[in-house]
């Protein structure tokens, strides 16, 4: 994140550039972190204020004129910004936890469906195994019947030949 640049804030405060959060004023510009300098109960306390506080004069090159930029009145104590940031992080964590819990629920449902599908497939494999065994038994029995039938036919042919030779 970009940080505020050092800008003179007037006699009552000084602008600072630190590694804190980026705060925008109502001009939608970075509000510099300042410190109360004058002697009062808030002396040394940090705050974010409008970039143009109290008044900032800018020279605009395309029109060669001076512009007096007025403050938008933005003000926020630094500890309030940090509290908001902490609340945002807590909310982000809660949303992340909720999303992870939801993803876990969806994955648990998927696992449950896959287990049901696995059970059905195991049952089908068992049924096919039984059918396969029955088919093998039938084929073996059919082969045995064919062998007996062939043996019976051969014995009849042999018997017929013997009868013909005996005459």
Structural write-up:
This protein has 167 residues and is α+β, with helices and mostly antiparallel strands. It is built from 1 helix and 6 strands. The protein has one helix spanning 78-166; strands at 13-16, 33-36, 46-49, 55-60, 65-70, 75-77. The strands form 2 sheets. Strands 1-2-3-6 form a 4-stranded antiparallel β-sheet. Strands 4-5 form a two-stranded antiparallel ribbon. The longest helix has 89 residues, at 78-166.
Strand and helix map with partners:
Blueprint lengths: L12 E4 L16 E4 L9 E4 L5 E6 L4 E6 L4 E3 H89 L1
Properties at a glance:
167 residues; alpha+beta; four-stranded antiparallel beta sheet; two-stranded antiparallel ribbon; 6 strands
